[in-house]
Amino acid sequence: xxxxxxxxxxxxxxxxxxxxxxxxxxxxxxxxxxxxxxxxxxxxxxxxxxxxxxxxxxxxxxxxxxxxxxxxxxxxxxxxxxxxxxxxxxxxxxxxxxxxxxxxxxxxxxxxxxxxxxxxxxxxxxxxxxxxxxxxxxxxxxxxxxxxxxxxxxxxxxxxxxxxxxxxxxxxxxxxxxxxxxxxxxxxxxxxxxxxxxxxxxxxxxxxxxxxxxxxxxxxxxxxxxxxxxxxxxxxxxxxxxxxxxxxxxxxxxxxxxxxxxxxxxxxxxxxxxxxxxxxxxxxxxxxxxxxxxxxxxxxxxxxxxxxxxxxxxxxxxxxxxxxxxxxxxxxxxxxxxxxxxxxxxxxxxxxxxxxxxxxxxxxxxxxxxxxxxxxxxxxxxxxxxxxxxxxxxxxxxxxxxxxxxxxxxxxxxxxxxxxxxxxxxxxxxxxxxxxxxxxxxxxxxxxxxxxxxxxxxxxxxxxxxxxxxxxxxxxxxxxxxxxxxxxxxxxxxxxxxxxxxxxxxxxxxxxxxxxxxx
Length: 519
Description:
alpha+beta, single chain, Dipeptide-binding Protein, domain 1, D-Maltodextrin-Binding Protein, domain 2
């Protein structure tokens, strides 16, 4: 109740308190904090958002997840799908620095060779080194031509090149300074100031290769950990957008259907988009306990709870019930015709009878506190079927480690796409990717699935690949290896002052074309 009255007061007295200075400064908050401005360590969303403003790569995604040129003007892929030849722009410059003369600032193919070499340098220990696993060689043919040779054809590779790991950096700067002193890239904004857990400031790059951009003068990033406090700062006009929503103010701002309440329509623009993230429960199918190996029980769990009500009442419809496959909405291979699992307690009971288990059916589900409400909801509905579900709550870091090493028989997981291709999801079920050496945390092993996967990653025709990917998705659902919960949504609260603020299913933050106006 206190929060509600405080919000009302802010709306009355503060909603027009936006800055009146002459600078156009975009302000956002990152509650998780930024750990590095080195693109080779852009593993989490916080680092990716920051480094994406400072650095550029060969290509990037637009709001429709179509790949478009960045530093490369155009490219050619050989018929066998192994050789990629990129022609670079001649007007791309590293940010100004006293150690770089004009020629050193001008980006050349050799700068990419150095940058890619850093990623695979064992001494650097970049978490992104895996992106180079299928790369055989890379070299500069001349100053404006970069060649990348793959070991085997891999159609998703062009999409992988949009990842910040592949950004270009200056050898001279990297080898003489730390990224905390000088984070020098080619992006629309350049490094100005960074104090841990306080503020990061980026300034407009006046030499950016896209004429007349960026429109903003600066970006200011704060690190308020309390999400309720950050939201109140947003309402005061001290922040220009909030990503996601916290349970502390969810019901105050959104209707049960996930729409913005009328009283906020003049002070908040609500943006939403499918998010390439599938939330799910996973079974370790080679568990020593037979109950997790039993497909009939796994299917009964899938039929045993109402995803539609769960998303409506626990998440205000922020997300789409996952009643189809594992591949999420927003991905070309998503199959709306794939019949997955909807709530059907009668089917669930019949499956349990066929399972012919003597005694109680006891399952242990491991999760983190952030998803406890969803797991308790499932626990309640499964109890009506006679399934006793115990919930173990682990700290996030411990939970990730236990999942990654396949130490959990039944676990809550989520998979956010590293790049916009269904292969990123299907790799979780390829037998050669068994954890801990790969992302197959369920230890699923299916010869037909493996054959389809190997055929798909060699297929250059997108339409054919989509058909193969959908067939693999059907196998995952039929075998009930996982329990899909929901396909996530990107949700953003944006100030009415902000224009040309694009959103896409990867939840990228590209402020190149964003403007901030006076109202």
